[in-house]
Amino acid sequence: MKVLRLNTHPASVAYSMTTLGSSMMNSIFSFYYVKLFLNKYNISEGAFHKSQVVYLIWNALNDPLFGYLQDNSRISCCSQRRISILYGAPFYCLAFLLAWFPWRSYEAGDWLSGLHLVITLCAFDGLLTFVLLAQCALFAEISENHQNRLRLIKYSQVASLVGSSSVLFCGLVSDNMDNFFSFQVFCVLVALLGCACMVYTGLHSQSRFDVKVTEANSQQPPLSLAAVATMTRQILTNRDFLLFVIMNFFQVFLLAFFNNFAMIFADHLIPADVLPSLAKSLMYGAGFICPQLLVLCSQNLLHVIGYYRIILITFAVEAGGAAAMLLLGSGQYYCLAVFITVNMILVQAAFSLFNLPLADLIDSDLQKYKRSSPLSSMVFGTNALFTKPAQSLAPMLVVSILNQYGYEELKDGNVIDQSALDALRSTMFYLVCLVPLFITALQFLCWKPFSIRDSHTIDSKSL
C-alpha cells in the first residue's frame, strides 16, 4: 500500500487526469474493435485489410503533422499543450463512440462496414494523436528533473490503473460483448467520464515553456519547410533515437498483437469448461490493470537501476517465458492462460516507461542544438511516424494467417472439419508463442546499445 500512497501534487494530478480519461477509452477500443468488426459486423477480409492500409498511412502521417503544428503554430489551441487537450478532448470522445454504433444492420461482407472501420480508425487515431501528443509534450516540459518525471509516471500509472479497469468492468457488464446494448451504454458513460477528466487537465495543467512559446510566436514568423526539414534531420541522425524507434516499433506491434487477439486466442485455445466466461473476463481485466501495478511497484527499481536495465530485463523475461510455453505445449491450459496474461502485463508495463527515454532524448536535443524551447511534439511525432504503422501491421498479418487456416469460415458460422479446426488452433498456439519469442529477442539486441543509461543517478540537467 505504500506504493499507492500519493501526497497531493497539483501538477501531477492535472497531468494524470488525461491518462485516466484516455486509458479508459483506449483500453476498450484496442481490446474490442477487431473482434467487433470481424465477428459482429462481419467485415470481409479484403475490406479489413484495405481499412488497415488506410489507417497505417494516416496513423503514420498524422503524428509528425500534429507534432509540427503543436511545436510551431501561432494559434494557442495548437501551441499551448493544455489548450490542445482542452479543445481536443470532446472530439476525441466522440470519435471513440463511432465504432460501437453500426450504421445499419450489416450483412456478411457489407461494403459499408469497411467504410465504417476506415472512418472510425482515422477519426479516433487523429483525435487521440492530437490530445496525447500534447500530453506527451507536457511530460517533458513540466519538469526536466528525473525525480519529478518519476512522480509524473507514478501518478500517471495510478490513473492508468483505474482507467484500464474499464476493460474488466466492460466485460462483466456486457458478458464480454455478448450483451451488446449494455456494452454500448457502458461505452457512452466511459466517453462522458473520459471527457471530463481531460477537460480537467486542460483547465489546470501548464508547461514551463508556455510563456516562452507565446512570446516567440508573437515575434517570429512560422518556420519554413527547410527549417522543419533540418530539425527533423537532426532528430533522425541521433543514434539513440534510431535505436529507440526500432525497439519501440516492435513494442507497438506486440502491444497491438495481444490487445487485438488475446480474447480470440483464449476463446479458441482454452476450453470454456476450463476457464468460464467470468474467469476470462478477470484474465483480460488483469492484462490491463496489472501493468500499472507492476510499474508502481517498480518505483524503487527505477530510482536504483533506471529504466534502461528494467526494459532490458523485461525483454529477457518475455523471451524466456515464450520459449518455456512452447516447450510445455498447447494442452497446458492454465499455463497458457497465465502466459497470455503475463505477456499482456509485461508488454504494457514496459511500454508505460517509454516516455522516460523519449524525454531524455528531448533534453539531449535541446542541449546539443541550444534551442530556445524543446521540440517535444516533433520528437514524439517523429517517433510515432515510424512506430504507429505497427498498430495496423499486427492485425493485418495475424488475420491473414488465421484466414488461411479457416478462421473466416469459422467466424461466419460455417462448419469446418475437425482436422481444419485442429490446424487453426495449432496455428494460434504457435503465433502466441513464436511472435513474442522472436520479437523480444530482436528488441533485446536493439535496446542493448542505447547509451542514455544513468539519468536516474546523474541528474545533471537540473543542476
UniProtKB/TrEMBL annotation:
Signal peptide range: none
Record-level GO cellular component terms: membrane
Superkingdom of the organism of origin: Eukaryota
SUPFAM superfamilies: MFS general substrate transporter
Cytoplasm in keyword set: no
Assigned keywords, A-Z: Membrane, Transmembrane, Transmembrane helix
Localization of this protein: Membrane
One Pfam match: MFS_2
Bilayer disposition of the protein: Multi-pass membrane protein
Entry's transmembrane regions: 12-34, 83-103, 115-140, 152-174, 180-203, 241-266, 278-298, 310-330, 336-358, 428-447
UniProt-recorded name of the protein: Transmembrane protein 180
Organism: Ameiurus melas (Black bullhead)
